User: What shape does this take?
Amino acid sequence: MLDLLRDGPRTTCDLCGSFESSRFAVMKHLRVLEHARLILVRRRGRERWNYLNPIPIQSIYERWLTPYAALWAGELLDLKRTVERREEKQKARRDDTRGEARTRL
Amino acid sequence: MTPGAKLEHVFEIQIKGSIQAVWDEITKRGAVQRPLMDTVLVTDLKPGSPFRYLSPNGKYSLVHGTVLEVDPPRRLVHTYQFSLHHDPPSRVTWELQQVGPDVHVRLVHDQFETETKTYKSVKGGWPGILQNLKLWVETGDIAFGTKMQYAMFRVMMPFLPKSCRVAADPRR
Assistant: This one.
């Protein structure tokens, strides 16, 4: 939900339409996020517009990650991405060779 | 983005303290506002009057605009133009609300017609300013990283373009 709001504000109606879960479930999530001040709501006429409030996320980041820890966390994330990409490539190659073997038969 | 979405930014932060303390800080004049990029606010806070954030030495204008609405200690509305960019004026609304021991500070920056340089630059700018406002009111200091940024900024100031010089355009 927050990912969607990162690109800009959305109406509650629009948000409900973006998920497969029931409108009730989406509203419940919205309420929790609003309570945590991660989402700010403004009413315009009959519409409820939801905005992402980045400040609590930034505060948590600054509270828990010293610059040093952030560096290491970043390195580990890079490692994760590199390994995962390599495995994906290997899998694709395996699938390819299997396909070739089959055509040869 | 939902079709029909307006280009505007909305931020909120909770500050422990009194609404008056926060109001006094955002309307402080005659001395630098440490959280607000170390600028000096120059205005008489009357609707229709100029509203400017100047460099500490008063030689450079960083932001200029006009006061639209003042309702102490709850609401301050003014237009906003970066002196560095040539974007049309946008609008800033400060809304303060005391909720128990906290002040809820909501900042709305709207009336952008397109995704201007101002629109893009304040998106990342306001969260830092609001976090420093919180630090300043609660602890009397701002973040170390921000101080380094200010030091850099002071060194760069003489290289600002002519449009930012108050002497070149006293309205700014």
User: Anything to note?
Assistant: Chain A has a mean pLDDT of 86. The CA atoms of residues 13 and 96 of chain A lie 45 Å apart. The first helix of chain A runs from residue 2 to 6.
